[in-house]
Amino acid sequence: MATDRETPDATASASASATATGAPGAPRPHRVVVLALAGLLPFELGIPHRIFGRAKDPAGRPCYEILTCGLAPGPVPTDADFAVTVEHGPELLATADTVVVPASYELGPVHDEGRLTGELAAALARIRPGTRLVSICTGGYVLAAAGYLDGRRATTHWASAEHFQRMFPAVRVDPGVLYTDDGDVLTSAGVAAGIDLCLHIVRRDHGAAVANEVARRTVVPPHREGGQAQFIDRPVPEPQQASTTAARAWVLDRLHEPLRLTDLARQEAVSVRTFTRRFREESGVSPGEWITAQRVERARRLLERTELPIETVARETGFGTAQSLRKHVQAALGVSPTAYRRTFRAAEPGGPGAGSATPPSPDGPSVAAGSVH
Questions:
Q1: Contact assessment for residue 119 and residue 38, using Cβ atoms and an 8 Å cutoff
Q2: According to a count of CB atoms within 10 Å of the terminal CB, is the N or C end of the chain lower?
Q3: Would you say 168 and 149 are in contact if contact means Cβ atoms under 8 Å apart?
Q4: Contact 333, 5 (CB under 8 A)
Q5: For the segment 19-52, what is each residue's pLDDT rounded down to a tens digit?
Q6: No. of H helices and E strands in the chain?
Q7: d(C-alpha 178, C-alpha 220), whole Å
Q8: Backbone phi, then psi, for 188, in 5-degree steps?
Q9: Buried b vs exposed e over 47-78: b needs ≥16 C-beta within 10 Å?
Q10: Cα gap 320→313, rounded to integer Å
């Protein structure tokens, strides 16, 4: 399954302008405007405020300013037994650097006929060219009806994907992924995938350190690749079935070492075959794919926070060689390790990495990055 690619170099200027400072004449924080439509889901409305609102620069200053608007100021009905009151009308959209459209269950002709109402069309017309557009779940219907997704890859909740494709044949719908990143237009599947997408945006704008801190404070996984499957056979293990949590924790302490499936399975006291099946059922990816993603994540942190040579980063992350590191970072992020470091390296380099590489063991094959499925 294809994974989404980030383009840090293309967003370097956005990252710089997004940093809030208290100095006179300093750029304001990157403004995120959330469009609240009738029938919205309160949980998804709160995702941008929770994720972007937690993002701070190294000095503790907010990276984003988050505001909410409706098609008119006042109460907006939700799918719950309460309404939310917004202070701003659609004129706020003209001031946005990023516009987020959460899901709604009352999209009317947008959902049923694939067309905007006059009021919604007039509101979206206020958005400035070049503004980044983001949808959560069925909020993608709004972007598609406005023509923003024509010719682009996009996703939505898996249960709506077939209908979404029928309504908008010009959109390249990928029903199986958590989110898509097409530069200035990003879409996500439902609920938790909206969290993943917002964390992805923070990571793209400000790097792994900031995004990981937001995830830690929000108590959510720091990074799930956009290409990960939406629908996992058993997202919660059956009661009598042990999870693969112990093996994953064991791996995270040893990413710089060669890792064998036999060793992972041993942590759960099961066969390799059982472990591999169970791992995919719980995570949606193979052990090899998951380990590769964790190694890339560690490489990002080292590239951002340290001055370690690329060869050392490769060893510390288990990729072994600079060539292997470049291959996997390029595949995951769309840029080379050097380009990524140039864009996102922290101002004050951190300490050294997790440890040195260990020679392969003769006991069995190692789980090379992306080699086990």
A1: no
A2: C
A3: yes
A4: yes
A5: 333 445 556 899 999 999 999 999 999 999 999 9
A6: 15, 10
A7: 15
A8: -140, 165
A9: bbbbbbbbbbbeeeebbbbbbbbbbeeeebbb
A10: 9
